[in-house]
Amino acid sequence: KMDDDDDIPQLSSHTLAALQEFYLEQQQREGMKTSQGFNQYSIGSIEEDWQLSQFWYSDETASCLAKEAVLAAGKGGRIACVSAPSVYQKLKEQDGEDFSVCILEYDRRFSVYGEEFIFYDYNHPLDLPENLLPHSFDIVIADPPYLSEECLQKTAETIKYLTKGKILLCTGAVMEEQAAKHLGVKMCKFIPKHSRNLANEFRCFVNYASGLD
């Protein structure tokens, strides 16, 4: 009789040791986070997943965009962050301010943010919960995950559905023409930076008089 264990791949002791070390480090990191009065909204509290084409903004850029969003939304304003979680996290750090915010995001790790998290796949731009009413946000900040016209065009459908008018789009400079075509937005002087340098030049585009010039 064959031994039942034969078809289970055995890890070498070397691999096992490396794995254990990895898990230990991870636990220590998690432990550190909680002991340092860890802020669940700080950028980097959820790590970038490059397979999902995620790149977080630098702290300064996220702060600047969050500040712009609050000003643009006005008192009691509603802000939607579409695939722009680091701006959402910055907005949440300013707790107690007079605005509300939603995050539309494909990465379900962000569901830790509860009711404000809305699962979003740009391939189905209008597949949104019924309680997300059309034109119910004072400003929509969007950062489409891919530099392709198809991705921009589909994300644009979502943006136009959600916004009362104001749009703040962050994407590659190469998308300038398509951004104008699909959303009527123009490039600002402000240059957004990421916590890791991206190969593509990144820019912000708006369709209103913003503070980013």
TrEMBL record:
GO BP terms: methylation
Reaction(s) catalysed by this chain's protein: L-lysyl-[protein] + 3 S-adenosyl-L-methionine = N(6),N(6),N(6)-trimethyl-L-lysyl-[protein] + 3 S-adenosyl-L-homocysteine + 3 H(+)
Location in or out of the cell: Cytoplasm
One GO CC annotation: cytoplasm
InterPro entries cross-referenced by the UniProt entry: DNA_methylase_N6_adenine_CS, Efm5/EEF1AKMT1, Mlase_EEF1AKMT1/ZCCHC4, SAM-dependent_MTases_sf
One Pfam family named in its UniProt record: N6-adenineMlase
A single GO molecular function term of this UniProt record: protein-lysine N-methyltransferase activity
Superkingdom in the source lineage: Eukaryota
Provenance organism: Spizella passerina (Chipping sparrow)
Broad class of where this protein is predominantly found: cytoplasm
Listed name of the protein: EFMT1 methyltransferase
Keywords for this protein: Cytoplasm, Methyltransferase, Transferase
